[in-house]
């Protein structure tokens, strides 16, 4: 195994809830209110749709807001890797990755281990270049039991919700997370920070046609069938851990360029939207957003009224 190269789960497709579009000569993130399954091939700047996208869309009768999935690993941290990440926008290379306590940073002297105070308290992260970044690998369909689809996100809501759900499902199933029949579900909500406009994030639930009890029974049966034919889930998880730890950074230069294009656009240096799936935190950080402009106008109008009453 090549040292310094992070060995990640084989990926056969992508899951997104937005896309990158070209406007006025710039490539900018555009949000969506549904999932999209694509291949890893681009044509004319657009990701080609995966055949699963059409099949699932037909089954759902319209917009794709739920995707049936299983997981490769029982360990939640193998299925979802979430870190504070900073990329070089010119090269697409990761330059700093941390967990809020320690970080690995690329510098003139190679990779250094440093303390990580999180983006809010880190001088290196100022300007919106560093943000939470998660990668979730899931299995869709039965065509390739080791080939996964990857969902990348910089949404606090998605990362926080998926992290909790994965741990809960592992606990209630008795460490049978990889055998549970689950689905990714797109949810919407409005908050004060989003100025009551809808934001979307990804959740993980038991499949719509099943109860929790039925899902647990199926997980135990599936685990027994695997054990009967010699499937070693613990060894698979251990091999995955060794692969991830083989490199300092998970993202390659090839993947990094696409990640920067989609989730770390240039305008996020000034607190801009910064991603196709960004949540209400982005709106709060952008002082030029339409929502904040509307709020400022209302406050100015209110101040004028109060000023008139005072005189």
UniProtKB/TrEMBL annotation:
Pfam families: Gp3-like. InterPro entries: Gp3-like (IPR043991). It comes from the Bacteria. This is Phage capsid protein. It comes from Paraburkholderia denitrificans. The lineage of its organism: Bacteria, Pseudomonadati, Pseudomonadota, Betaproteobacteria, Burkholderiales.
């Amino acid at each position: 195994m090549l040292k310094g190269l992070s060995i990640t789960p084989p990926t056969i497709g992508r899951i997104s809830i937005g896309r990158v579009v070209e406007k006025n000569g710039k490539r900018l993130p555009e949000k969506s209110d549904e999932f999209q399954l694509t291949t890893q091939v681009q044509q004319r700047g657009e990701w080609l749709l995966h055949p699963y996208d059409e099949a699932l869309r037909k089954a759902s009768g319209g917009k794709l807001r739920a995707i049936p999935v299983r997981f490769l690993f029982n360990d939640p941290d193998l299925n979802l890797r979430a870190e504070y990440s900073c990329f070089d926008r010119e090269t697409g290379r990761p330059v700093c990755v941390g967990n809020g306590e320690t970080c690995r940073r690329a510098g003139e002297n190679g990779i250094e281990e440093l303390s990580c105070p999180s983006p809010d308290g880190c001088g290196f992260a100022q300007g919106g270049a560093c943000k939470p970044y998660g990668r979730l690998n899931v299995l869709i369909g039965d065509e390739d039991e080791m080939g996964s689809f990857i969902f990348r996100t910089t949404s606090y809501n998605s990362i926080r919700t998926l992290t909790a759900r994965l741990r809960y499902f592992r606990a209630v199933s008795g460490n049978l997370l990889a055998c549970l029949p689950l689905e990714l579900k797109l949810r919407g909500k409005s908050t004060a920070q989003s100025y009551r406009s809808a934001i979307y994030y990804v959740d993980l639930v038991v499949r719509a046609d099943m109860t929790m009890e039925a899902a647990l029974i199926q997980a135990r049966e599936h685990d027994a069938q695997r054990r009967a034919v010699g499937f070693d889930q613990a060894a698979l998880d251990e091999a995955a851990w060794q692969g991830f730890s083989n490199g300092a950074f998970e993202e390659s230069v090839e993947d990094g360029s696409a990640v920067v294009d989609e989730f770390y656009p240039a305008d996020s240096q000034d607190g801009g939207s910064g991603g196709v799936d960004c949540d209400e935190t982005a709106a709060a950080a952008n002082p030029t957003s339409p929502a904040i402009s509307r709020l400022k106008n209302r406050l100015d109008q209110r101040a004028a009224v109060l000023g008139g009453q005072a005189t």
